[in-house]
Design a protein that fits this description.
The complex is a heterodimer of chains A (439) and B (264). By secondary structure, chain A is an all-alpha fold. Chain A is 63% helix and 1% strand. The chains are: A mainly alpha (439), B alpha/beta (264).
C-alpha cells in the first residue's frame, strides 16, 4: 500500500508539473496568427502513417535513418509496457496486462528486443555527438548548451533502456529462483540472465524492483524535461506531422488582407463595401514571434535540431549565414523570451526586441533561394520557407527594406511588366524570322 | 533543305478574327527578353508548329505574373500583377496554359487559384512527354549519337511540384546515356537563382551556389547538361564558363534537344 501511495504521489506531481509547463506553452499559441484550416483528415492520417510511423523521410538518409527508425518503433512498443507499469504502480498489481495472452507476449517480447536495439542506436548517436566530427551537428546556432541538451536526452534514453533490460533480467531470475511462474517473453533478457550463474532470489527481486522504479521515475523526469528540451520532439513530432501543410511545397500562402487592398485599388467601387471591417490593420508579414502562425510555432517546438534542413540548404552549403534550423530555433527561443511578457502585458507589448534582427538577420533572410530543400528534407514536415518569405514580406511591405537590386526588380516589374528593363513592345522579338524545316 | 516561315499566333489577332485557340503558350519574361533563352522558346514554338498545336501567345499583352516579386516578399506587387494577368486571361477565356518556365508554372498552378484564377496549367515537359507517349512526337534516338546527358532538376518542377519522371522519360528517348548527378530528383541542389536570387548578388559566403551545382554536373562527365528552367540555364551556363568548360560541355534545354533530334 505504501508503494501505491508513494507512486500515486509522484505520478500526481509529474502530471501537475507537466500540465503547468504545457499550459504555459499553450498560452503562447494564443498570440500566434492563423495558418490554415485543419481538414482532409484522410490525407492527414495517411501522412502520419507514412511520414511518422513509416519514417519515410528519415530514411532519406538510409543508414542513420534506420537507427532513428529503430528508436522510434522501439518507443511505440515499449510505451505499452510503461502504461502497464503505471497501472501496476497505482493498483499494486504485477504485470496487469497479462490477460492479453499471446498479444501480451508479443508486446513484451518486442519491447525486450527493442530495448537492446534502441540501446545500440543510442550508443551510436551518443558516439557520433561525442567522438566524431559530424558537420550537421555544428553551425552558428549550435551552442554548448544545445549539445548538452542533446547529450542529456540521449543519456536518459540510454538509462531507460538499460533499466528496462535489468528490470526484465531481474524479473526472470527472481521468478526462476523462487519457482514462481513468470509472464511475458524476454528473448534478450533471458540471454543476459543466462550469463548470470549465481545470486540470491532476494537480490534479483531487489534488482527487479530497483530497475522498475528507476525506469518509471526516469520516464516521469524525462517527460518534465522534454518541454524545455529540443527533445520536446518526442511529444510534438507526430502531432506536427498530422498538422502538416498539405499544399505543394511550391505554394506560398495567400495574404488575403493584401487581396482586399489590391482589389480596392483596382476597383474603387468596392471601397464602400469593404470599409465595413473595423478590425485594426494587422502588420504585414512576420517581424516578431507573435506574427508567426501557430503552425510556425508548432514547427519550432517540434524541431529536434537534427540539422538535415541546414545540411541540404544551398545557401548554407556555400557558406552563407542562412541556416533553416536556426530560423526554427530562433522562433522558439524568441517566443520563450517574449511569450511570458505578452502573457503579463498583452499581445501588443513591446520589449524593444524582435525575432527580426535580434535573432534572424536580413542577411540570412535574403540568402534563401526558396528551393524547398529544407522542407523536403525535414523528417517531420516542418516548413521553413514560408516563414522566411513571411519575414521578407514584413521587410518589404512594412519597412520598404530590401537589397538595392531587389528594389530595382520591383521597379522594373511595376514600370515595364518584367523583372528587367525592357519594353513590352519587344515581347515578340523572339519570334522574328522563325522558320521550320520542311521534311 | 526547304524551310517554311512560322508566324507565331497572337491571342489578340485570333480573337479579332473570332478564333479561340486551345492553349495559351505563356512565353514568360526570360523567354521574351533573355537572348539565350529566346532560343529555347523558338525551339519550343517550332515543336508546337510541328505538332500542329492550336495555340497562341499573348505577345505585347503579356506581363510579369508577379512570381519574383512574391518570392522577394512584395505580396502587394505580386497580387497587382496577378490580378491584371487573371483579367487578361478572362478576356481571352483562357482555359489551358502551357508554360516553359517552372516558376511561372508554379505560380499559375498553385497560387493563382487563391486569387480566383483557375486553369489547367501544363508544363512543357508534361506536354512534350504526353505527345511522345501518344506517338505524335517521334524521336529517333540515333539522331543525337547517344550523347551523354545529365539532367538538372529545377526546384520548382521537382520538389515544388513533384515533376521528376517526365524529363527523364523524354531524355531516355533522346539518348541511352542519361547519367544522374549524385544529388538528383528531390535531393537535387538548387542552381542558386530561385527566390529572386536571380536578380541580385548572392549573400556573402565562401562559394557561389551555381559553381557547387556545376561541379555536380561536371562530375558526371556528361557532354550535355539538360535544363528545364531559364534561371537554371543562366546559372549553369555561367558555371560552365567559370570552369572554362563551355567549349566541351553544352547546356541545352530539353526543348532544344528535341528540336535538334527531329531536325526542325
Amino acid at each position: 500500500m505504501t508503494k501505491q501511495i508513494v507512486f500515486a504521489t509522484i505520478l500526481l506531481i509529474t502530471i501537475g508539473a507537466f500540465s503547468y509547463t504545457i499550459s504555459r506553452i499553450v498560452r503562447f499559441f494564443r498570440f500566434t496568427r492563423p495558418a490554415f484550416p485543419i481538414k482532409d483528415f484522410g490525407k492527414r492520417i495517411n501522412v502520419v502513417l507514412t511520414v511518422a510511423f513509416g519514417q519515410t523521410k528519415i530514411f532519406r538518409r538510409p543508414v542513420i535513418g534506420l537507427f532513428h527508425a529503430l528508436v522510434f518503433w522501439g518507443f511505440c512498443v515499449i510505451i505499452f509496457g510503461s502504461i502497464e507499469m503505471v497501472i501496476d504502480g497505482l493498483t499494486g498489481t504485477e504485470r496487469v496486462l497479462t490477460f492479453l495472452g499471446p498479444v501480451y507476449n508479443i508486446i513484451i517480447a518486442s519491447g525486450d528486443i527493442f530495448a537492446l536495439l534502441v540501446t545500440i542506436s543510442i550508443i551510436i548517436f551518443l558516439s557520433r555527438r561525442l567522438f566524431f566530427h559530424i558537420k550537421r551537428f555544428e553551425g552558428i546556432e549550435m551552442k554548448k548548451i544545445t549539445h548538452i541538451d542533446a547529450n542529456i536526452a540521449l543519456s536518459i534514453i540510454l538509462l531507460l533502456m538499460v533499466s528496462l533490460l535489468t528490470m526484465n533480467t531481474g524479473y526472470i531470475e527472481y521468478k526462476a529462483l523462487t519457482g514462481e511462474a513468470s509472464v511475458g517473453l524476454f528473448p534478450v533478457s533471458s540471454v543476459i540472465a543466462g550469463f548470470i550463474t549465481n545470486g540470491q532470489a532476494e537480490s534479483f527481486r531487489l534488482m527487479y524492483e530497483a530497475s522498475w522504479w528507476t525506469h518509471i521515475l526516469l520516464i516521469f523526469l524525462f517527460a518534465n524535461i522534454l518541454p524545455y528540451s529540443k527533445h520536446f520532439h518526442v511529444f510534438m513530432s507526430i502531432p506536427n506531422v498530422f498538422l502538416s501543410r498539405l499544399d505543394p511545397l511550391g505554394k506560398l500562402p495567400n495574404m488575403d488582407n493584401i487581396t482586399r487592398e489590391v482589389k480596392l485599388m483596382l476597383d474603387p467601387n468596392t471601397a464602400f463595401a469593404a470599409s465595413a471591417t473595423d478590425a485594426p490593420p494587422e502588420r504585414f508579414g512576420v517581424k516578431d514571434a507573435e506574427d508567426a502562425s501557430w503552425k510556425n510555432y508548432f514547427d519550432s517546438l517540434a524541431c529536434t535540431q537534427c540539422g538535415r534542413c541546414t545540411s541540404v540548404c544551398p545557401a548554407n552549403i556555400t557558406g552563407k549565414k542562412l541556416s533553416p534550423r536556426k530560423v526554427m530555433m530562433d522562433l522558439r527561443e524568441r517566443m520563450k523570451e517574449k511569450g511570458p511578457l505578452m502573457v503579463k502585458n498583452g499581445r501588443d507589448f513591446n520589449d524593444n526586441h524582435a525575432l527580426l534582427r535580434d535573432y534572424i538577420s536580413e542577411e540570412e533572410l535574403w540568402a534563401c533561394t526558396t528551393c524547398n530543400a529544407c522542407a523536403k528534407e525535414c523528417p517531420i514536415n516542418i516548413n521553413h520557407p514560408t516563414l522566411i518569405v513571411d519575414m521578407r514580406r514584413y521587410l518589404v511591405m512594412e519597412e520598404a527594406s530590401a537589397p538595392g537590386e531587389i528594389k530595382a526588380l520591383f521597379n522594373n516589374i511595376e514600370n515595364n511588366g518584367a523583372p528587367w528593363q525592357y519594353s513590352s513592345e519587344d515581347r515578340l522579338n523572339w519570334s522574328k524570322d522563325l522558320e521550320i524545316k520542311v521534311h | 533543305m526547304e524551310t517554311r516561315k512560322i508566324e507565331v499566333p497572337v491571342m489578340a489577332d485570333l480573337f479579332a478574327r473570332g478564333e479561340k485557340p486551345e492553349y495559351l503558350f505563356w512565353v514568360g519574361c526570360a523567354g521574351a527578353f533573355d537572348d539565350r533563352y529566346k532560343k529555347v522558346v523558338r525551339a519550343f514554338a517550332k515543336i508546337l508548329t510541328h505538332l500542329n498545336v492550336n495555340y497562341a501567345v499573348l505577345g505585347k499583352e503579356e506581363t510579369c505574373n508577379g512570381d519574383p516579386a512574391r518570392r522577394a516578399g512584395n505580396e502587394m506587387l505580386y497580387q497587382m500583377q496577378a490580378l491584371q494577368v487573371i483579367e487578361i486571361f478572362r478576356t481571352y477565356d483562357v482555359k489551358k496554359i502551357i508554360t516553359i518556365c517552372p516558376h511561372c508554372f508554379n505560380v499559375f498552378k498553385n497560387e493563382y487559384p487563391d486569387l480566383g484564377g483557375k486553369y489547367e496549367v501544363i508544363n512543357y515537359l508534361q506536354f512534350l512527354n504526353r505527345n511522345i507517349e501518344d506517338g505524335k512526337l517521334k524521336i529517333d534516338m540515333a539522331s543525337l549519337n547517344n550523347i551523354s546527358i545529365t539532367y538538372h532538376d529545377p526546384c520548382y518542377l521537382g520538389r515544388a511540384n513533384d515533376i521528376y519522371d517526365e524529363p527523364r522519360s523524354i531524355l531516355k528517348k533522346l539518348t541511352g546515356n542519361l547519367v544522374e548527378m549524385h544529388r538528383n530528383k528531390s535531393f537535387a541542389l538548387c542552381c542558386g537563382a530561385g527566390g529572386a536570387q536571380m536578380f541580385k548578388e548572392a549573400e556573402k559566403g565562401d562559394k557561389e551556389v551555381f559553381i557547387e551545382r556545376t561541379e555536380d554536373a561536371l562530375k558526371t562527365n556528361a557532354k550535355v547538361i539538360a535544363t528545364a528552367c531559364p534561371f537554371c540555364m543562366t546559372m549553369l551556363t555561367d558555371g560552365l564558363k567559370y570552369k572554362n568548360k563551355e567549349q566541351e560541355i553544352r547546356n541545352l534545354d530539353i526543348a532544344e534537344l528535341i528540336a535538334q533530334s527531329i531536325d526542325l
